[in-house]
Design brief:
single chain; 412 residues; alpha/beta; Rossmann fold; 6-stranded parallel beta sheet; 12 helices; 18 strands
Length: 412
């Protein structure tokens, strides 16, 4: 870029910056002053899933450190903002982010329900959000060109669309386990309900039948009514995309019903965490989840591979991540920071970042080498690889998801 063009670009950005300060409109240009930090934030859920939040936040912090600075400006993340895995919490978290006018992007949310509340507010404010863990199809699309009910521009994710999880689970249940009559249960959450519905559709398309689709409420511990319904129809298998609290109560009561002892049990990725895997009640369950063994290549933004990152986890945080989504958090953070660096305009000691241009830059992501694989974003923000494994958990002394045997591999 010639000096004349560069100066013209800076003048135009300055005009836009002044205009965006006067107009309450999406986008706008953020100025990072000399000596100031580039600001990003994370929307997690420490009050609801503290252990998963902790490891995803660690991965995000590590990605920030590994990335370094942006044209000499340090990157400031701050602590995780609690969205409580609910739409109301998501809205409150988004409002907290929007109140800081220099924030350029968000890593999150952890739960799909929180994204339902956060995404529309962040979108109107011109911000971008890159989630490492949301899988509800409603947040993006049905992967056939039809927009999801809760999609808003500026939302992206490195986690897979849950339709891939559902397809993998349905194919495995039908073709590998030979199941034909199944039941499902969800808790009404966008993730849980979306996963159950997608599984039912995929299983039916293969020739199977969902003979009962039940719903519990979040916080329920008494599953008597649902399990009586399931017992009456004697299914071949049960698909239960529940979170840890409800999932543990559900499986404890399933184990006590004689007529359900022969039913195959298939869970989704929300239960693919160390705390659940460590209970003997979890033995024998199949899980649909992201690939927990990562590629040998390095993240192209930091040059770090999974082995190097995990070694730092062991030394700096005294342990291994309890959820495979740590890798998606690392990739989400580097994808965001790389895009910020790509679109930032430097003028002396200042940076200018146009939020609208940043959103387009992330949306144009293609062939980004992450530690979860090659990431490319579609028009509705799905950037994940689509790779899903079915894991079989047979020994509750094995609590690291990466150590579970994968019995089925799905690649779209």
């Amino acid at each position: 870029m010639s000096d004349a063009i560069r100066q013209l670009h800076i003048v135009l950005l300055t005009v836009l910056l002044t205009a965006s300060a006067r107009a309450d409109a999406p986008g706008g240009v953020v100025q990072v002053g000399s000596g100031e930090a580039v600001q990003i934030r994370s929307l997690m859920a420490p009050s609801v899933v503290p252990s998963i939040t902790r490891w995803l936040q660690y991965a995000t912090e590590m990605a920030v450190r590994d990335f370094g600075s942006i044209y000499g400006h340090r990157i400031e993340l701050g602590g995780p903002i609690d969205t409580r895995c609910s739409p109301e919490g998501g809205r409150a978290g988004a409002e907290q982010v929007i109140a800081e006018p220099r924030v350029l992007g968000v890593i999150g949310t952890l739960c799909s329900g929180s994204a339902v509340g956060a995404s529309p507010l962040l979108s109107v404010a011109g911000l971008v959000m890159v989630s490492p863990a949301n899988i509800s199809p409603a947040l993006t699309s049905d992967l056939a060109g039809n927009v999801g009910a809760h999609y808003y521009p500026g939302y992206f994710r490195t986690a897979n669309n849950g339709l891939y999880h559902a397809q993998a689970a349905a194919e495995f249940a039908y073709a590998e386990l030979g199941l034909r009559r199944m039941v499902s249960v969800d808790d009404g959450d966008p993730y849980s309900a979306g996963s159950a519905a997608a599984f039912g559709h995929a299983f039916h398309s293969l020739g199977g039948e969902i003979i009962s689709a039940a719903r519990i409420e979040k916080g329920d511990t008494d599953m008597t009514e649902v399990l009586a319904e399931f017992s009456a129809v004697a299914p071949d298998g049960i698909f239960f995309p529940l979170f840890e609290s409800e999932g543990l109560a559900f499986i404890r009561q399933v184990r006590s019903i004689d007529r359900l002892q022969g039913a195959m049990l298939i869970a989704d990725s929300a239960l693919l965490v160390s705390a659940f895997l460590g209970t003997p009640l979890s033995e024998g369950i199949y899980f649909a989840g992201p690939v927990a063994t990562h590629i040998s290549g390095s993240n192209m933004a930091t040059g770090k591979n999974a082995d190097a990152i995990l070694a730092v986890f062991e030394s700096a945080y005294d342990g291994s991540p309890i959820s495979p989504y740590w890798a998606h958090a690392y990739d989400s953070t580097t994808l965001l920071l790389r895009a910020i660096r790509s679109v930032a305009v430097v003028d002396g000691g200042k940076l200018y970042v146009d939020r609208a241009v940043l959103r387009k830059e992330i949306g144009a992501t293609s062939g980004f080498q992450g530690i979860t694989g090659i990431l490319s974003c579609d028009e509705y923000g799905d950037c994940g690889t689509g790779r899903v494994n079915i894991y079989h958990h047979e020994d509750s002394s094995v609590t690291d998801p990466a150590q579970l045997p994968a019995v089925y591999h799905f690649l779209p």
